[in-house]
Amino acid sequence: MDSAPKYSICVVMPVYNNAGTVLEIARRIIAQGRPLIAVCDGCTDGSTELLENSALNLDLIVLPQNRGKGEALKAGFRRALERGFDYAVTIDSDGQHFPEDLPAVFDAINGSDGALIVGSRCLNAENMPSGNTFANRFSNFQFTVNTWISLPDTQTGYRAYPLKKLPPLELIPSRYEAELALLVLCAWRGVKLESLPLRVFYPPQGERVTHFRPFADFSRIFILNTVLLLIALVYGWPRTLARRIFK
Fold first, then answer.
1. Residues with Cβ within 8 Å of residue 223, at least 6 apart in sequence
2. Helix/strand/coil (H, E, C) string of the chain?
3. What is this structure's pTM?
4. Residues 48, 17: contact at Cβ < 8 Å?
5. Does residue 196 sit within a domain?
6. What is the share, in percent, of the chain residues with pLDDT greater than 70?
7. How far apart are CA 25 and CA 33, in angstroms?
8. What is the pLDDT of residues 163-194, one digit of tens each?
9. Number of structural domains, the chain?
10. Mind listing the pLDDT tens digit for each residue in 123-162?
11. What pLDDT does residue 221 have?
């Protein structure tokens, strides 16, 4: 079990067409002893109905149309803030993440001073798609350029966000690039970032359900990085430099 709680913590699980795994993942999350907020993002495969008809004790948000992972995360964060939580731990519903690692995340939260905890996967994990590896390493490099901070994994969805330190959610994009934007904007705002090694599971090719589109989503990440670099020149770098000088 995690140590005596310093912060109130919930888990936010975005869901998009993961009917084969969503109930099992939800059960395993709830077993770790924290409230679960599940956000069904326009699911068309029965995922929403599975959660609605289950006897699981969870808070279900249903977005009638698919709006993207970023929108699902923002809906979950808003609900968590409404309910008075300090932290939201995000975890994917496709079986990639291990809910049994949540106690380690809770301990990292309670041992931090309001840091954003970023899960760190092994980028050489068995069956990890090569396109994902390239996109992640490119994103890591761009993140360092934009923030002067080095992180081993800037694309993982397994994170713990200090809700009251997040940037205005209106600034966050709607799709996969949202997670990168959250990291960069939090870094510019002076939020401490801490990396935590976590396990990852990739089923053999053909068995994993993923909605990451290598070309389209990597292109969106590349465009976002370009925009962030321009903003870094006039805002991010001067703010970071001033913070380091005065600190």
1. none
2. CCCCCCCCEEEEEEECCCCCCHHHHHHHHHCCCCCEEEEEECCCCCHHHHHHCCCCCCEEEEECCCCCHHHHHHHHHHHHHHCCCCEEEECCCCCCCCHHHHHHHHHHHHCCCCCEEEEECCCCCCCCCHHHHHHHHHHHHHHHHHHCCCCCCCCCCCEEEEHHHCCCHHHCCCCCCHHHHHHHHHHHCCCCEEEEECCCCCCCCCCCCCCCCHHHHHHHHHHHHHHHHHHHHHHHHHHHHHHHHHC
3. 0.87
4. no
5. yes
6. 87
7. 14
8. 999 999 999 998 878 999 999 999 999 999 99
9. 1
10. 655 545 555 566 678 888 989 999 999 999 998 999 999 9
11. 74
Residue 203: pLDDT band with limits 50, 70, 90 = confident
State both tokens at 131: 């396109």
Residue 173 forms part of a structural domain: yes
Give domain status of residue 165, yes or no: yes
Angle at 227 between CA 226 and CA 231, to 5 degrees: 120
Q: Domain range spanning residue 79?
A: 9-246
Q: Please give the pLDDT value at position 117.
A: 98
- What CA–CA distance (Å, rounded) separates 59 from 36? 6
Neighbouring CB atoms inside 10 A of 190's CB total 11
Return the pLDDT at 138: 81
| Residue 234 belongs to domain with CATH number | 3.90.550.10
Considering just the CA atoms, what is the radius of gyration of the chain in Å? 17
In a domain, 4, yes or no: no
Q: Residue length, the chain?
A: 247
Query: Are 196 and 108 contacting, i.e. CB atoms less than 8 angstroms apart?
Result: yes
Q: Phi and psi dihedrals of 155, rounded to 5?
A: -110, -5
